[in-house]
Design goal:
about 110 residues
Length: about 110
């Protein structure tokens, strides 16, 4: 009876996580390898680090974006009068896509 009480007493003071946790030691080389740059951090060898987008393509995209943006106020006026232009959603998506593309090309 005393041994059962002693075992229960010991188990009550041992942290529960230590019963089931089995952690393997991490080799020292793994920690150092985690600090090294991965393939996504290194630019490809056959491409220059600063890639300039084609000026003609940028101009076309900018003009298209400006044209779409100028057509939106008229569509919103129609919407305020109770008529929903059916291509308004496509125009807004196209504006979003063009601006995202331009932003990405200019940030490189």
């Amino acid at each position: 009876m005393r041994t059962a009480f002693a075992i229960l007493l010991i188990l009550a003071f041992v942290p529960r996580g230590s019963w089931t946790q089995t952690s393997k030691p991490i080799p020292p080389g793994i920690r150092e390898a985690d600090k090294l740059p991965g393939p996504a951090d290194v630019p490809p060898l056959n491409q220059s680090a600063t890639r300039h987008p084609a000026p003609q393509l940028l101009g076309e995209q900018a003009r298209s974006l400006a044209d779409l943006a100028q057509s939106i106020p008229g569509d919103i006026a129609q919407f305020n009068n109770g008529a929903l232009p059916k291509d308004l959603n496509e125009k807004l998506k196209r504006i979003e896509k063009l601006s995202k593309t331009l932003r990405g090309e200019l940030s490189n």
